[in-house]
Amino acid sequence: MRLKDKVALVTGAGSGFGAGIARLFASEGAKVVVNDINDNAGQTIAQEIRQAGGSATYVHADVSSREDTRLMIQAAIDFGGRLDVLVNNAGFTHRNKPFLDVTEDEFDRVYDVNVKAIFHALQEALPIFLEQGAGSVINTSSTAALRPRPGLGVYCSSKGAVNNLTKSLAIEFADKNIRINAVCPVIGETGLLETFMGAPDTPENRAKFQATIPMGRLSTPQDIARAALFLASDDAAFITGITMEVDGGRCI
Ligand SMILES: NC(=O)c1ccc[n+]([C@@H]2O[C@H](COP(=O)([O-])OP(=O)(O)OC[C@H]3O[C@@H](n4cnc5c(N)ncnc54)[C@H](O)[C@@H]3O)[C@@H](O)[C@H]2O)c1
């Protein structure tokens, strides 16, 4: 039990990587707060965790809203009595398409959900971590931050911002026993797959992306959850500010 009695909040946990992280954290003893804007999906994950013998609750919040974020963090404290781990995982992308076709609304939504939401969540959670004298943050970034693909320029740049925010804040809070890290998944089997590919999820289209990944497959929620578990646990007690590639060698 690597997270026994820890309280963890995972945003965007109704699907994909977030759901995988919530499930694994709960199976490792954490009390998990499952957040999403898709209530049906989020409630289903929290219920599945409870049915498997774990501890979980669901909280609706749009992470791009400061007020929703404040209420979400308060709900986590009400549920667990404290907050030990914050996983900023919720994300959004415009469809893979030429840069000149990306609208201003799409740009704003990408930056609101991928970047500004982390600003909101950290400004609300860090005072709690400071008071507790400890805390761990994991931001779900992307290999898009390190090895950008064409057709996803705005999304890639938003994840670049996530990586630099992660590193900069890791230094700022290092002497307060607060660790801030990121995981960088390569393209994976989640709800966003077709949007990233900009094409239907057919074996032929998957093969094109798999061919760019040295280990020859897409990432899975289990891959990302295992990396997040390591970073959240005391095994990573001396690790802060890393942007861990979970990518089958894609970024080399
Ligand atoms: N799938 C990939 O190929 C891939 C690769 C690298 C990084 N990522 C990142 O992984 C993270 C998780 O995405 P995923 O691939 O699991 O996709 P997903 O669509 O399966 O899951 C994302 C979840 O976030 C929720 N969400 C979206 N906007 C939200 C908001 N404003 N507030 C609260 N919840 C919100 C969605 O409802 C959904 O349940 C994202 O940050 C994404 O950028 C994905």
Provide an overview of this structure:
By secondary structure, the protein is of the alpha/beta class. The chain has a single domain (7-244), classed as NAD(P)-binding Rossmann-like Domain (Rossmann fold, 3-Layer(aba) Sandwich). 45% of the residues lie in helices and 15% in strands. It has helices spanning 16-27, 39-51, 66-80, 104-132, 153-172, 193-197, 203-210, 221-232, and strands at 7-10, 31-36, 55-60, 85-88, 135-140, 178-185, 243-246. The longest helix has 29 residues, at 104-132. It contains 8 helices and 7 strands, in the order E-H-E-H-E-H-E-H-E-H-E-H-H-H-E. Strands 3-2-1-4-5-6-7 form a 7-stranded parallel β-sheet, with helices on both faces. The model has no long low-confidence stretch (mean pLDDT 97). Strand 5 (135-140), helix 5 and strand 6 (178-185) form a beta-alpha-beta unit. The two termini are 33 Å apart. Bound molecules: nicotinamide-adenine-dinucleotide. Nicotinamide-adenine-dinucleotide is lined by residues 11-12, 14-18, 35-38, 41, 62-64, 89-92, 113, 140, 142, 185, 187-188, 190-193, 196.
